[in-house]
Structure formats: C-alpha cells, structure tokens
Specification:
It is a single chain. By secondary structure, the protein is α+β, with helices and mostly antiparallel strands. It folds into two domains: 91 residues; 231 residues, BirA Bifunctional Protein, domain 2 (2-Layer Sandwich). The strands form two sheets. Strands 1-4-5-9-8-7-6 form a seven-stranded mixed sheet, with helices on both faces. Strands 2-3 form a two-stranded antiparallel ribbon. The structure holds phenylalanine. The site of phenylalanine has 12 residues, from β7, β8 and β9.
C-alpha cells in the first residue's frame, strides 16, 4: 500500500504540471485530498493490516498529504503571478506614444507658477518643522478682524477693502491671518505653522493689484521669541527661494495684529539695466511681518505674559512676479494660454 501512495503521488505531480488555471488546480485538491479523494479512499481499507503497518501507512499518508498541499499552494501562487503579469502586459502604456501625441499639437499641462512657488515654500517650512494649515475662504468678522485686534470702529478696517456678504457678518477673507486665529485656538504652545491660500479684496485692479491673490501666512509661538528669531526664519526662507544669501532690511510697518510691525525688503537688482528706474530696483518690499500683538495671543487663547510670537504674510503672487520678471499681476489669472504655456511641464 505504501507503493500505492507513491503511485498516487507520482500521478499527482504529473497532473499538476499540466494545470493552466487556478480553478483547475483547485479541483486537483478535491481529487487527491478531498473526503472522497484518492488518498482517503486508500486509507479506508486498512482492516487487514497490523498495528505497526497501520502506523507506517498513517505516517506515509500524512507526509504525502503535506507534499501535495505544498505543491498545490506553490502552483497556485505561480499561476496567480502569471495571471497578474499577463494583465499588466495587456495594460502597459507605451510612453513613446506620449511624445508623439504632443508633437501632433496636443497641449501639455503644467502647474500654475503660483502653486509651484507655494509648494516650494511649503517644503521649505515643512523641513524646518512647521505644520501646513488650511482655513475657509468664507469667514466671520471675528476671525478676519476682531481676533486680530481690529475692532469694528478701527480705521484699519479700511486698509483692506472687504467683500461682505448681505448679512454683514460674513465676508471673503481679506488675508490669511485668519489662519493664525484658528491655529492658535486649536493648539498649545510652543508651535509653528504656515497657512497658504487665496485671499480676496474688493479693489480696483492694476498691474500690482488683483481682487483675488495668494498669501502664505506664517506663525510661531513659544516662550522666548524675539525679532532675531523672526529675521532668522525669514533669511533662511529667502536663501532657499533665491538659492543665495539675501540682503534684507526691516522698515517699520503698521498692522494692528503685530507690535512691532515691519516691512521686510530685499536688495533687488533688475537684470534689465534699461528698466533700472523702475520701483523694483534697489530695495524691494516683499514681506510684512512682526511680533504678535498681546491682544491677538489672548484672542487665540494664549497667555501673552508667558508666550511670545512672530507672524508674517508672504505675498505669493509678488514672489512669482519677482522670480519670473512678470510686470503685471493680472497675467497670472488671465487664463491667457500664451502666458500659461510658458510654465507647462
Ligand atoms: N495680513 C497682512 C496683510 O494681508 C499681512 C501680515 C501678516 C502682516 C502677518 C504682518 C504679519 O496685509
């Protein structure tokens, strides 16, 4: 009978080799190992055997069983891999086709220059341990004004012409400083984060003003912070963006939510000498910033006796204009393909 088991094994192996599909292979399992399978059938007539023979046979049959099981599993795995490979081959993309499509005049997409600058700046701050936060476009006046130390009768409300909703409670955020308020309210110091996004002002447009533009807010709050820390982070940012150490200067600037408040300028030379009389030569105003006003910390639920903060508001459109020598901010939203296609991939 031991021989018969060997024969069954032999038969199994030769059958297994011929299997081409998973379903067929699964049938083999029933044929050899099932309740009415070949092995079980054999084990049913053990009556005439001695105990010793029964034992030997039992062992033999068990080892045959495990050989069969293993071989089946291996075969199934192999078939699965083959199937997957066939599928992948059928779906394979011919990348050489892509270029020939573009050669035939199809437009190639690209990332908008404002977004690629935004991503770059996000990466720089992420590498310095900042979080990246988001906030809603539609805000209430608390987050856009009051919490930022701009009460209803404050003249600074006129600094930012606002798109109000009919209820006179809600508005389109005029700056990303709203993200400062939400960020402070939802975390405990020390923390540091940035918040990029669109902002909206009800303004007449010209070469340097758009109704919709992009800012990137930054805020850091900790126990011992000073203007020196602010300058360090700004210089690191600018060195990364422009790939060289930038000369900066701080001028006093007024924003109700920072005290002291600054305009940070960079030393900037226009490459085109014919345009040297333009206002962008010499010092270029790039970045309003300052130490967070105690009232603002308080509105964000932070003890101004214990903690200090700095904040800044980077104008992303401005940065794109400087970098790509764009003379009119309105190009960036024009949807003009002649402009956009300069930035395609
Ligand atoms: N929120 C200000 C603006 O849009 C910019 C700013 C941000 C100034 C942070 C100082 C600190 O005009």
């Amino acid at each position: 009978m031991i021989k018969e088991i060997d024969l069954i094994l032999e038969q199994f192996h030769s059958e297994l080799e011929q299997q081409k599909t998973l379903a067929e292979t699964a049938n083999l399992k029933a044929k050899y190992l099932g309740k009415n399978g070949l092995l079980s059938a054999l084990m049913k007539n053990l009556k005439e055997l001695s105990d010793e023979e029964k034992k030997q046979l039992g062992q033999k049959s068990n080892s045959a069983k495990s050989v069969i099981e293993k071989a089946l599993q291996q075969k199934m795995n192999q078939l699965e891999i083959d199937q997957m490979n066939q599928k992948l081959q059928a779906q394979a993309v011919d990348f050489s086709l892509r270029d020939s499509l573009f050669d035939r005049g199809l437009n190639r997409g690209g990332i908008h220059p404002v977004h690629s600058v935004q991503r770059e700046v996000e990466d720089i701050f992420l590498s310095m341990g900042f979080e990246v936060l988001d906030g809603p476009y539609i805000e209430d006046s608390f987050h856009n004004f009051e919490a930022l130390n701009i009460p209803a009768d404050h003249p600074a409300r006129d600094m930012q012409d606002t798109f109000w909703f009919a209820d006179h409670q809600h508005l389109l955020r005029t700056h990303t400083s709203t993200i400062q308020v939400r960020g402070m309210q939802s975390r405990k110091p020390p923390f540091k984060f940035i918040g990029p996004g669109k902002v909206f002002r009800c303004e007449r447009t010209d070469a340097t003003h758009e109704m919709v533009f992009h800012q990137l807010e930054g805020m850091m709050v900790a126990e011992d912070l000073s203007v020196a820390n602010l300058i360090y982070f700004m210089k690191t940012l600018l060195a990364e963006i422009f790939q060289k150490e930038m000369e900066v200067r701080l001028r006093p600037g007024y924003f109700p939510f920072v005290e002291p408040g600054f305009e940070l300028d960079i030393r900037w030379k226009k490459p085109d000498p014919k345009k040297s009389e333009q206002r962008h030569s010499g010092w270029l105003e790039l970045l309003p910033c300052g130490m967070v006003h105690p009232n603002v910390l308080q509105a964000g639920g932070i003890d101004p006796q214990k903690y200090k903060g700095f904040a800044f508001g980077l104008g992303l459109d401005r940065l794109v204009m400087v970098r790509h020598q764009i003379d009119d901010i309105r190009h960036t939203h024009s949807g003009d393909l002649r402009f956009n296609s300069q930035f395609s991939l």
